[in-house]
Automatic annotation (TrEMBL):
Lineage: Bacteria, Bacillati, Actinomycetota, Actinomycetes, Micrococcales
Protein name from the UniProt record: HNH endonuclease
Every HNH nuclease domain range: 425-477
Record key words, sorted: Endonuclease, Hydrolase, Nuclease
Highest taxon of source: Bacteria
Pfam families: DUF222 (PF02720), HNH (PF01844)
GO molecular function, one term: endonuclease activity
SMART domains cross-referenced by the UniProt entry: HNHc (SM00507)
Organism: Microcella putealis
Length: 525
């Protein structure tokens, strides 16, 4: 870095510790790319050192605020309920940040106490009782933090993920060395491991030794290997590797323990739907790894190539890629729409096995005058916000919605009936005839399509294949909400009539069948 830029770095670092003067944001536009990255590395080093110092102070604050001191403790004397709350008020950080500082600071404190005790013992000086329990299997972690080579977040991830050793002993050193090499993996090939890490021995047999416990020695080797990995991977990747390391140790110590851990993770799964004040519903939950892989695979398939991944050269894949890239929906909206569509499809494939005795459906309450007019609002049971009558009509087409029609006095005039829905055999016939969504240019297959009444059932339309047509959810919404209509002519077949704003002259858009089998069947007939 040129002298002028070295001066900028020096001035910036000095301003970070000089709190007497107002802080000035550095003018980094004068730096080239290499200088910019070099400056960021310097500041990252400064931050690691500052965080290490903060963690040490946090541990001291926690010790001076320990529960047995009561109101005489530091935190409570300053009006804070806990040392973490006091640290939050001092740093402006989160509760998680404060807990991390205390946790890692306690490791540093314990190691410093152990070193001081060793020196005192060598000199014959009486040794005081340690303030913090020492975890020798994390010595490599503590040393790296003290040298500002490891962030306190990385250290916390390793500490929490590896956990504690079991009670017992395993003296098979090769077993621990094998684990260290496995954790290091190929991503850090060519990098130098921490001094505490034991390299894999070439003289040891390749067979695995099965221990009955997870020992401190094994955790120490795992921790050292993880410290070596940390500089070249993200915190998220480090956390995954820590979990894997502990899982490997648990599995080799006791197969049942690994199974128990898997069951415990699965028991934590849940899905929660919360209705928001604006009528939207927030979805939150936890997926166990197996379920998450299945859901992620489905969503990735629906949103690729938006999210990257392999590219294919077939005409169909190229066309799909172009449509998806030009889709006005966000990637997140496409992901949610795909998930909802999968629920709809799954419910109709095997309703009694998946969700009880009937497919997923909604119950709609609608006023008679609105139903006759085809306008106004309807209410879906269990939802706070109203929906339009066309939306309610679309649900009645597809999911067996029970439409409860009421008059002005609130008396129920009629209920929907099951004969409104197309049967499975009728849907098979529609699939063979239409080949998927009939809207021009749409490539949705029959499995993704909904059966729509051309002449509405409420207007006397029959539930038979001659009065049915397959539409994907998007184009079904378009039809119900945007004023499109479908016409069928004996010779010309199906055609869409756009609303006046789209086609003022009323030009019909032909909707030929997408079925490849139909033309051949007609010819054969």
């Amino acid at each position: 870095m040129p002298n002028s830029n070295a001066m900028l770095t020096s001035t910036l670092v000095a301003s970070l510790v000089s709190t007497e003067q107002p802080f000035a944001v550095p003018a980094v536009d004068v730096l080239n790319d290499d200088e910019l990255i070099a400056l960021q590395r310097v500041l990252s080093e400064v931050r690691r050192r500052a965080d290490t110092a903060s963690a040490t102070i946090a541990a001291a604050v926690a010790h001076r605020s320990r529960p047995e001191l009561g109101h005489a403790g530091l935190a409570q004397r300053l009006g804070a309920r806990t040392p973490q709350k006091l640290l939050q008020s001092l740093t402006g950080g989160s509760a998680r940040d404060a807990a991390t500082m205390v946790r890692v600071g306690s490791l540093l404190d314990a190691q410093a106490e152990a070193e001081a005790a060793a020196t005192a013992q060598a000199s014959g000086v009486p040794i005081a009782e340690p303030r913090q329990p020492r975890r020798p299997w994390l010595d490599s972690v503590t040393t790296a933090v003290a040298r500002a080579e490891l962030t306190i977040e990385q250290a916390s991830v390793i500490q929490l993920g590896l956990g504690e050793p079991d009670v017992g002993e395993c003296t098979h050193a090769a077993h621990a060395r094998e684990l260290g090499a496995e954790i290091a993996g190929t991503e850090i090939a060519g990098t130098e491991m921490d001094a505490g890490a034991v390299p894999p021995s070439r003289d040891e047999p390749a067979t695995r030794h099965v221990c009955s416990v997870v020992t401190a020695e094994q955790l120490a080797v795992a921790a050292a290997a993880l410290v070596a990995c940390a500089p070249v991977i993200t915190v998220e990747q480090l956390a995954a590797r820590v979990r894997e390391a502990r899982a490997v140790l648990d599995a080799e110590a006791d197969v049942e323990r690994a199974a128990d851990a898997e069951r415990a993770r699965r028991e934590r799964r849940y899905l929660h739907l919360t209705v928001q004040p604006d009528g939207m519903t927030r979805l939150s939950g936890l997926l166990d790894p197996e379920s998450a892989a299945l859901v992620r695979s489905a969503i990735d398939g629906a949103t690729s190539p938006r999210r990257g991944g392999p590219r294919f050269v077939s005409d169909a894949e190229i066309a799909r890629t172009e449509r998806l890239l030009n889709d006005p929906r966000t990637t997140e909206q496409i992901a949610l729409d795909a998930l909802v569509e999968l629920v709809r499809l799954g419910g109709h494939v095997a309703p009694t096995e998946l969700i009880g005795t009937t497919p997923p459906a909604v119950q709609v309450i609608v006023a008679e005058r609105d139903l006759r007019a085809g306008a106004g609002l309807a209410r879906i049971e269990g939802q706070s916000e109203p929906v339009s009558v066309p939306t309610a009509e679309r649900h009645r087409c597809t999911s067996g919605t029970l439409a409860i029609v009421v008059d002005a006095a609130g008396d129920v005039l009629s209920l929907g009936r099951a004969s409104r829905l197309f049967t499975r055999r009728q849907r098979v016939a529609l699939a063979a005839r239409d080949g998927g969504c009939r809207f021009p240019g749409c490539d949705r297959p029959p499995s993704w399509a909904e059966a729509h009444h051309i002449t509405e059932w409420m207007h006397g339309g029959r539930t038979d294949t001659a009065n049915g047509i397959l539409l994907c959810r998007h184009h079904h919404l378009l039809l119900h909400n945007n004023g499109w209509a479908i016409e069928r002519h004996r010779e010309a077949g199906f055609a869409f009539r756009p609303p006046p704003g789209v086609a003022p002259d009323g030009t019909l858009i032909p909707a030929p069948s997408k079925s490849r089998a139909l033309p051949r069947a007609i010819e054969a007939g």
